[in-house]
Amino acid sequence: MTLESCDQESGLKTLHFTEGEISCKNEKGESVDWFVIYKLPKYKINESVGTGLDYMYLDPTLPSWQRSRFLVNDSQGALWYTLGQLYQDHKSKSNTSAYLLYNDDPPLLDYKKNHGHTKGTVLFDMEQGFWLSHSVPRFPPFPEKGYGWPPTGKRNGQTALCVTYRGAQFVSIAEQLLLYNPRVYNCSLPEIFMPMFSNLSILCQGVRVPISDKKQAMKLTSSRGETFVNFAKSQYYVDDIYTAWVAQDLKSNLLTETWQEKEHELPPNCSLPEHVYNVKRIQLPGPHFFYSQYDHSKWCVSQNFKQQWTCIGDLNREDRQAWKAGGLICTQNPIIYMSFRKAVSWYKGC
């Protein structure tokens, strides 16, 4: 349960979490197995310039995208309630939970090219926690700063996937993150988590270790028994993750929506058994239409409605990112699939 109070001097809301397990939180602050957020871009087709802070929300209780009544920078909503657990733990100096913040373009620090193109937050204790994977540069803030949305995060569309996992699953997640080679800009790993989570200790120290595999797909099970598949590639697997690996492994033609700069974008690919096409225009309920050039999110869906694969992640379809580490989290959840598949307004084939 989450309770709110208001600081008499500052007028700012403060979260007070009662005893309970760490998890993804919905728009009301209640625990959910997973949620997806699609932040709308500032510039949309045939619409006046928007705030760049509105978003669509989806979780297991909803049949399709729901326009949130909150903004992503509000002191309410799924992101704020979820990450609030991290900020509250930091404030209380808890030694019963561990966390990891990573972003190739972190807040307050310079961008560096030698890390994976990957962004996310992990928070867990021995019982349970969440993995929030997103596409937002300079987010989230350092724990001592409290929740906030970066000013640079308004222009483009962005996605975020949060999944709640039981504690033991974070051993596997840590193994996958080693391949990601993430830029960890803040972390906490109390002694009680060693040596079970030694891989996280390595990540916290910023040490790059030799890896035996260039890529690895691993099944993860959410707290309520739903299967997700994480595709993680290192910088030593030099290829387009969508074309060369994910589409072929899932045995599915994929429609891919990723941010592509014109001089580096990869064209649709039909040279392998499973084809990969580029989404050029997105439509979300409202209706909200926007072009891929204003969408910084990274996701793909099966072209065939029967296969129902959706993957959300880190990497763009452009030539430079073939040399980048990162990954995708995939699911055959029908709610997630239909929500993203219907969002494909127009794509470019071979």
UniProtKB/TrEMBL annotation:
Catalytic activity reported: Endonucleolytic cleavage to nucleoside 3'-phosphates and 3'-phosphooligonucleotide end-products
Keyword terms, alphabetized: Hydrolase
EC number: 3.1.22.1
UniProt entry tagged with the keyword Lyase: no
One of the GO BP terms on file: apoptotic DNA fragmentation
Broadest EC class assigned to this enzyme: hydrolase
InterPro entries for this protein: DNase_II (IPR004947)
Keyword Hydrolase: yes
Molecular function, one GO term: deoxyribonuclease II activity
Domain of life: Eukaryota
PANTHER family (alphabetical): DEOXYRIBONUCLEASE II, DEOXYRIBONUCLEASE-2-BETA
Family in the record: Belongs to the DNase II family.
Protein name: deoxyribonuclease II
Organism: Erpetoichthys calabaricus
Underlying gene: DNASE2B
